[in-house]
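Shapes recur. One chain:

:::
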Amino acid sequence: MKSSPRTSLLLAAVLLAPPLAGQAFEEHFNFPNGTVIPGWTKEVGAWAVRNGRLFGTGKGWRFLTKNQFLAKDCVLEGTFFFAGTGVQFGGLVARHPGKGSGTNLVLGKIQDNWPGKGFDQAYLYELPQVHTYLNLKKRGTLAVVLRLILLDDQAWLKVDGDRDGVFEETLGPLKLGHVLGAGLVGLASYGPTEMDDFKFFDAVLKERAGSVPAIGKTFRMHLRAPLAKGKATPYLCLVSPTNGGIPLRARKIPLGPDPALNLPFLLPGVFQRFLGLLDSKGDAFPAIRIPNDPSLVGGVFYVAGFTIDLSKPFAVGAVSNDLRIRIR
C-alpha cells in the first residue's frame, strides 16, 4: 500500500471531523461529593465520590457498572489507591450480567493481604470460583494502574505498579469456562480502596502469543473489533512515539499527535496490514517488520487501531487500547 492523497484524506477525516458520541469512554469521577454517581449503576453495595475519586462504603464486596456499555471483547483500565488500613481491594469488572449480580463475571483486582501498608497481590477471577493470582514484585505499592483484557475465552490482567506507563507484570491468560458472552463493564471493591481514571476500549489490540519485537524479526499483533452490521468493516492502525491521546472530544485515540502517524502509509513494507478489512470474526492481524538495525534497540513506540465508518463523524467506530512496543 503506497501513500496517496486518499490515505492522507482518510487520516485528516479521522483527526479533524466533528465529534462522535461513541462507546470508547473515560470517567474521572469529577462529580460533587456524595452518593450520586451519574451514568453508573450500583449493582452490589454502597458507593460514593469524594474529591474526584470513587470508593465503596459498608461491608462486603461491591460492584458498580457503567450504564448501557455492553461488550464481550474489550480492554478496561483504572487507577487504584490504597486508602486507610486493613485488607482491601479495587478492581475492574467485565461481562457483568447486571440485575444486582455479584457473580458470573470476570474480575481483575489489586489487593492488600499481607501485613503492612499497601497492595501486594493481584487476582484474576471468573466468578464464582476460577481464579489465579500473583505476588507483586514490589509490595507496599500505594497506587496502581490495572489493565484488564478480554478476548474470546481468555482474560489477562496487567499491572503498572509505579504508574510510569509501563505494565511490568502480567497475570494470565486465565481460561474462561462459562462467562463467555457480552456483559456490562465496571468496577469492584472491598474495604476503603479509592478508584479513578476508568477507561473502556471497545476494541482489543494485543501482541500475538510468542511474538517478540526484536530487530530483524516481524512483530505480529491481533486486533479484534465489533463488525458493522451488514457491511464490510474497514480498520486503520496508527503508530506514534507517545500515547497522550488524540482527542475526539469525549473520546480519544490513545496515541500522541505526531508526524509518525503517517508512517504506516509511507512505509507499508514495515507496517504491514495497518489498513484493511476485518474478517468475519472481527479480526485483523497487523504486523511490523522491524529492520535489522542495532540502533533501533531500546526504541519505544505505541500502536492503536480503530474501525472506520465514513458515514459517521470522525469516521471512527470502535477504538482499541494502545500497545506499547519496546524494540529488543
User: Anything to note?
Assistant: The radius of gyration is 20 Å. Confidence is low (pLDDT under 50) at residues 1-23. The chain has two domains: 5-20+204-326, 25-201.
